[in-house]
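Q: Could you fold this chain for me?
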Amino acid sequence: MADRKNLPAQQQVATFYNGINVQVFVAFLISANFLTNIVEKEIDPKAETHADGSRVYGEFVIFELVYNIAFTIELAVNIYAHWFREFWRSKWNIFDCVVVSIGLINMSIELPKSLSLLRMMRAFRVFRLFKRVKSLNKIIVAIVHAVPGVRNAFIILGIVMAIYAILSVALFSKNADDCFEPGGDARFQTARGGCHGPEYFGTFSRSFYTFFQVLTGESWSEWVARPVIWYISSETGTFQAVCAALFFCSYVGITAFVLINVVVAVLLDKMSAPEEEEEAPEDKKVDIAASTGEEVSQADANSNGEYARPIQAEFVADGSSSKANQLKAVQEQVGQLLEDRKKMCKELDTLKDNTADMKQKLAQIMKFVSD
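A: Sure. Below is the predicted structure, expressed as structure tokens.
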């Protein structure tokens, strides 16, 4: 790792930046910034802008200035400590650059009203906390690994929802479409000034959103299914109403009870996979500790540092130069263990030779006694 460090005092800066005290302080700043945003939106939600969109410079803008300066300094130290490839290989560092850059833009220039939504990116600074808290980072990494499998399950769920949405447009879009006309049934008027059938099932997009509402379980029976069943029962008869009820019940059974559980199962399966991969190196360490004389010979052949290459690769992949000292300590411990095991093997060979001599002498004594 030293070969890649060519900036003055870069190793010392990396050790300082990756130290526990600095990381805890940065995590505190991120949390404080997030809490400041919460307080700002709670007590004075319009503190940032006038009615015409121009900025207001108050207490919270001062807080924003302080946080932007602090995060800019932190990012600059991070870049210097891990320049160049080591820094840009981390997606978290790229995310930090985007968030800090947007903060600097908001602080430096007056954005037009069409771009004022960029200020909302400040709320996403809290995601930087996930990089510094190992337990949170582990969850995020597991979710990212689970995305491909969950994506396929969601595709199946979306196809089923689309099928039911298409059928509903054909079956229910004309229900009570005359609710505002003279002689129409006013009971099917919605709170938004529409008729139930056209509003909930008038087009594919409306019908698809309606079935998403049914999937979430939010008032699906009272506001979606019952008006349909009630209207069909009053217009055509009981049999058709029962079929409509079975239509909605079958959708709930397939999606809410089956496919959603499939998504959860796939998510749990994919999220548990990284944990098993992380446990694998520990098993290897146990196997090394319990290895036989042949494994000791193989380890002796690699005692010049080859034995510790898997551990070194793990530290390098992590991208944290603060672990260089830990890597060195691990290599020294491994080398000491190999030396101790070599001595034990030599002592074992000596003991075997002594045992063979004792057996030979014992055989001579037994022969002498028998004669």
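A (continued): The two ends are 73 Å apart (CA to CA).
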